[in-house]
Amino acid sequence: MRALAEFIMKGRLQALAVAGLGVGTLVFAWVGVAAAVLVLLRKGLAEGAYVVFWALLPAIAVATIGADVGPLTMLLGASVTALVLRNTQQWASALITAVAVGLFSALLLLQFANAYLASVLELVQPMLKTMQASAPGTFPEITTGDVAALIGVSTVLWSVLAVMLARWWQSLLYNPGGFRVEMWQLRLSPTVMIGLVAVMLLLSKIGGHYRFWAIMCVMPIVIAGLALIHGVVGRLGLGRVWLIVFYVALFILQPLWVALILAAIVDSWIDIRRRLPVPPAQ
Fold it and tell me: What is the C-alpha separation between 143 and 22, in angstroms, rounded?
């Protein structure tokens, strides 16, 4: 991955090639987005906007011809998120931006692209019917509003992952270890946490078209919880084995997700990492 990052940063043509070819595909779209975002993070808006602009062309083509807005919303979401991260140097601000873009994207699709949402719903309808038949009462009826919400969730998730990949590349090339430190220190302030929880509860209360929209507000809290776990393991010098065990347990034990979210909420108020003892130097 370092070699790819070095190739991207060799010049504008190389960055355009990786960004354009990546965004033009569905499988590697997030890599192409990360390439454009890397230039934005490192060289600023003037140079970054140039790469993002040309990467928009294949993204628009995929949305128009391939009827998939994913690469387009991901590119726009990641670009705005990266710009906020560059200007503020705060991951919390970047995460909130990603959520705002996801909510805005879902709202735009719901208001102006009902035909597209209906076509996506029609495409996945056979699979949904099979799932509902195998477990009656388990899976709710899916609407176009739910499809818009899921696209918004996808936009938030993949935008953040693309920015994280770009930030990791930037750290590898210009600031070794910097990305790890940023992740270890990532923490949402009480004000941000209250805002996210309030919007999440409001969307859940409204229900209807907006029942899945609250997931977008949960995602920064989950990321903050994962950062807390990494920070605690790093602060105590426990090693990667503990992280592997944690992630395995996270995918096996569903209640652990609730515990992770609660831990992130508590951490926003008391800063758990700051209260941990520093292990003695070896």
Answer: 31
Query: How many CB atoms lie under 10 A from the CB of residue 107?
Result: 15
DSSP string, 144-212: HHHHHHHHHHHHHHHHHHHHHHHHHHHHHHHSTTHHHHHHHH----HHHHHHHHHHHHHHHHH-GGGTT
Do 92 and 214 lie in one domain? The reply is: no
Task: Give the chain's domain count.
Answer: 2
Instruction: For 10-56, write each residue's pLDDT tens digit.
Output: 989 999 999 999 998 888 899 999 999 999 999 998 889 999 999 99
pTM of the predicted protein model: 0.91
Listed residues 183, 215, 239: the one ending a domain? 183
Same domain (yes/no): 72, 173:
yes
